[in-house]
Prior knowledge:
The protein is of the alpha+beta class and 97 residues long. It is 35% helix and 30% strand.
Amino acid sequence: MILEVAEIYINDGDQPAFEQAMRQSLETYVSITEGFIDAELQCSIEEPTRYLLLVHWETIEAHMVNFRESERFSKHRALISPYFAHPPKVQHFTLCK
């Protein structure tokens, strides 16, 4: 299992609209991807414009190929990117052995 961690900063004042857009995108585009397990959006307490999107995938290919190379990814980004203060930083993690 792979954990995708996206650190997202949005424009101040856009929090409710961004959160709604992200919920819609996760339900409509991300969750139907083969290899998707689950996702959650975490809101920073100290920095109200900072979010962490945590997505579990069966494999890194499920994220990088099944989702990122699909039309769903373009639709996902179109829905949420108007709120970005700058591009998200995305990394992948796995459990340590």
